[in-house]
């Protein structure tokens, strides 16, 4: 890969932000500060940042119930996210979505999604829009190993292949669908191989290695921008915490956890760039400090922010579309 120093620094900053954000939520949720369910992304940072480092605001992503990392990697404001998770009015979705439903369309983040396999149909819709409008925008569709068994995922892959849509399907195989190992629930266990049945290229990469993910992502995204259709990436990764906060994690052992933590994506990134003289360790240390202060301030602001008003209870239910966007409802066939 050919990344300059600024790109490397930004990649590290976003990965560190995800880790700090998630570790803080882990602490505060245990203290009873946060309402609702929370599913943490810590450990998987290299996947989201490796993919999104190739994207601009005009590109889109669809996410999962474990969506904080995707949001941060795509550039969503962390203060707004924190307020949203605390259910406060200044939140990304005015405090109405919570952890599992953060979205920011202006940043191309089409929303976290509590429905397993809910993202692929949305990704195909966004990709069809990009194709109809004649842009070179692409869509990254994140989903887990559990969603690889869902009909919506397979139907979305088939549709993207038939219409040559600019979608990159990214299976974040973190080992477990909730509490069930993919080795038990996935027939054949080679998730990447499934995509070949839909005529699209696929690859499995080390999801704990930022550079491996970013290299595969760069090729897949460039292919989509050229109009050559979808690609499938299986990123083999690991989540450090349980399926949800409060999970006893009785389905895996300490030895397995320590094995994956010993290959931590942030530590490996730091070792690579400092050993090759690409970035100074002191610069990365400065980022660590700045990010810690940023997250601390986000929590402070969220705690002092107002709750949504009762007057806003029935707002944000329907969306008004400008007339220029109503082509999708016209009585004419869709041509691709």
Chart the SSEs and their pairings.
Layout: H1 5-30, H2 45-52, E1 60-62, H3 68-73, H4 78-85, H5 119-133, E2 139-144, H6 151-163, E3 167-173, E4 176-177, E5 180-181, H7 182-185, H8 191-194, E6 202-206, H9 210-225, E7 231-236, H10 254-261, H11 265-275, H12 281-304
Helix pairs in contact: 1-2, 1-11, 1-12, 2-9, 4-12, 5-6
CATH superfamily: Thiamin diphosphate (ThDP)-binding fold, Pyr/PP domains
Query: Which topology does CATH recognise?
Result: Rossmann fold
The number of E-state strands comes to 7
Series of secondary-structure elements, N-terminal to C-terminal: HHEHHHEHEEEHHEHEHHH
Question: Which stretches are low in confidence, meaning pLDDT under 50 for 5 or more residues running?
Answer: none
- Averaging pLDDT over every residue, what do you get? 94
What percentage of the residues does DSSP assign to strands (E)? 5-15%
Largest sheet: 5 strands, parallel
How many domain regions?
1
Descriptive notes:
The protein is of the alpha/beta class and 336 residues long. It has a single domain (5-307), classed as Rossmann fold. The chain has twelve helices and seven strands. It has a five-stranded parallel beta sheet with strand order 1-2-3-7-6, with helices on both faces. Strands 4-5 form a two-stranded antiparallel ribbon. Strand 6 (202-206), helix 9 and strand 7 form a beta-alpha-beta unit. The mean pLDDT is 94.
